[in-house]
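dude i think i finally got it to work??
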Amino acid sequence: MDAALQVDTAVRGAADTLTFGFADEISAGATAAFDFSNRPFRDKFADYHAVELARDLADARERPIARRTGQASGLALSLLAPSSAAAARMLTPRLLSEMRGMKGLAAIPRIRTGPREYAVAAAGAGALNGATQSATDAATGGHGSVGDYLGAVIGGAAATPFAIARSPKSAGAVEGFTTSIAQDLLNGRHVSIDNAMRSSAAGTASSDIADRLGTRWARGLSSTQKGKVGEQLSMHKTRARGYVPNGRGQRLYLSKGFTVLDPASSVDELVESKNGPFVKVSPNQLLAFHENPGRYRFDWWQPSDVGKIAGFGGASLGVHLADDDYP
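look at this
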């Protein structure tokens, strides 16, 4: 009997996480729908919902390990679900040897993300999560405290390394969990692991949805639009690296002819931005790289990069819409 209760508690915990805290409403609604008594549906739903909440309290009090195990399993399932975008680095271009059809570029090193880029991305992510907190408060009529906003900023910043080095889904999971815990601590509340798990699962799901939508949108762009998007991404990257973009194309004269630099170029870095699954590097662009060692930067963006950036931003919405009325 005890083993059966442990399993039931674990399953309920997993369902709670996977449905972002709405498992009780779903169960109560389904039960009420098949209750053919003459009572109003609202009353039946309220009664069954109260029963579900009581079971949650009993699970958390009497079988906490089984409940936590189930919640962790639910979160793991949401993280392991396949994502549409590859785990590409948001601020780091790929090795140019990976460009399809390109040869002789294997010696070009990867420009790794430095502390400055991480700091800039963390500040932006924290500000976005705080802004989403404000927007959801306005939409729902809530009134966020200083602790709520500070917790949101901390959660967004904490997720940044995972967005850059891993994937939007892992960033969404970290952002949801960290935001919930930080808000509880900063508001002097009892830390609710249940709420943290639900927020984490919601952040995972919303980031994955935004990732897929962003990737699909980027794939549908024309060649001209892809070029413009790539240039804008490279300009933001130049700023994140601490340089000021020129904002216009300029000729770079070489030993043989010239090449036109992208607007993302600066006094310190010469940039050629590419966007799309298939790209071409001209002979003069390759010559420019060899004649300007350490200064000429190739950026190769793909639809998955746009999806990744959208996914990281979309995580905030799920985090703040996650249900938090449970123990």
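Strands lie at 251-253, 258-260, 270-275, 296-301.
im so relieved honestly
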